[in-house]
User: What shape does this take?
Amino acid sequence: MATTTQTALITGGTSGIGRELANCFAQDKYNLILVARNQQELDQTAQEIKQQYGVEVTTIAKDLFKREAPFEVYEQVQATGKQVDALVNDAGQGQYGTFDTTDINRELDIIQLNIGAYVVFTKLYLQEMLSRGKGKILLVGSIAGELPGPLQSVYHATKAFVNSFAESIQNENKDKGVTITNLLPGLTDTDFFNKADMTRAKNVAEKSGMMQPADVAKDGYKALMAGDNRIVSGLMNKVQVTTSNVLPNELIAAKVHQESQPVDGNESAK
Assistant: This one.
């Protein structure tokens, strides 16, 4: 059982799965360090968590699209003297539309956020945790990383990186006292789709098989605390991943494309 002296750092901790993971840690009396872009949202989230769970919440407003931002967060945390016992890499974004019509600068930002920030935070805190011989890291991947992703090609590719990266560092750090868990959600009812301009996709508009972020967070938190390497959240998502390992990628790509067709018929990015 966690004690009040333990601290979890969570990126993207003001909404969606990250916010629900913050609740999970706070319920177990972890103090929190929440990282997100919007200071107002951070303040509101911190106030709600403090009132509900009585834990200490530190907020850091940083734009993780910027390459230097994860290093700056690390330095700020070091300056406070706080020890990070659990790291949650959750912040991530996507962009909807055919690759020839999407914005390359936004995609480079997404690659930095979904891959660059994950790599920096994981390296810096893994090194600290290994020196202590204990710690926990949760990487929020996605079943998108297991499937080709027409109309979300860059997002799916970034999550394929996360899933592969997780497996590699899990093997490197086996039996060293540090738990590294990869959480793979599927479609989850969060603000992700608004930011990705994906609310016009058929599967999002219909909310078909969409999970609630609290349920996904509970699955991830439970797996992290149990020391599991990987958890695919949701029965239908497990089925989809299993199927994708059997069927040819071309068929899977066609199926994903069909499911995420725009309801207005326009596949171009807006």
